[in-house]
User: Fold these one by one.
Assistant:
Number 1:
Amino acid sequence: MSGFKASKCFEGAGPVLIWAATTRLGDGRWWKGYLIADAQQQSFGVRLAAAKGDDLKVNGGVVTMIRKHARTAAIGAVLADPVHGHIWLPLFTGGGYSETPRYWLQLAQGLPPELRFIDATGTALIRKSSQGTYTKRWTLPDALPVYPPDGSLIDITATLLRGCPKIPCHPTSAPTWSKPNAQFNQR
């Protein structure tokens, strides 16, 4: 299973979370762009984009909570629940996908839809919907999904990558970088 290495995290207007993300494609190249988790009623879902967009906050409540608990997260997959309509993103903080996720991001289908940051015990640390941000801890009524998925969830990561925007991919070797000329930095 391929996942995304997430770095910077941003919060959009409404229940939207945006990560700068990279992943290795099937042909060995690297994809670099933005993974957008959107819990707004009109645009509910996860998508990939070349640009992060405008009107973003770097210090919103959800972003602050994620930075506190899962600063260097890797997103294991994008998992869809065909029964309830939820989308789950397992967040790993230990350096590999072999462990169980320490945190989950859930896009919960409902009226209104919610974006939930959940720990491994099933407690929502923060929730955000179009009606506000809720920081009171709340235990999920259902159990967390199993990772790797046991068949109750559908891994839609490959589908997202097939439909991703035509963003330049880096070759398998690291891109070349030259040090800026020092004379331009001196005044």
Number 2:
Amino acid sequence: MSRRVFSILAVLAALTGCRDECDATIPFGQSMDCDHGVGSIGDAELVECDIMMSFTVSGAAEASDAAALIVASIENVSGAPQTVTVTEACPDGLVAFEGLGDGVDYYGSCLAGDCADYGESVAYTLAPGEVLEEEVIIRPDGDDCNAPMDAGTYIITGALSLTEDDQPIVCATSATLEIAG
């Protein structure tokens, strides 16, 4: 399976009553029994996450011109070293952020075009408890690469572009970005 990232919207957590730590260990729309880093997928056995990708939003956009910092934290929650092999996405970063709509340039590269090593495999080995972080700044009033955004609530999540190699199980949470009108 090339994409073993389980991602879910915050709505699912509200429907299932699960704790924040376990909000995203299954695909959206499936049932879930929660414990930190563990979830069930439908009638399948429990899935224990090796890597937990969590998202935070700070500098909440209280006004349409306020910038928001979105951080993806990729943590090895297993007891052993884990290697994640991804496809190089240069000029973008490690995380394929989602949730702000089609055409949003999260990394501010303005569709600069692929780097010379685009598409090559890159391996990241994380020790138990080690965290990689990826940050982007979003300006709701627009910037050189993005049009202004509509007021509203946006659910931010993302994925890693995992290769076909044997991969650890990667789970992902979501975060909420509120943009004032």
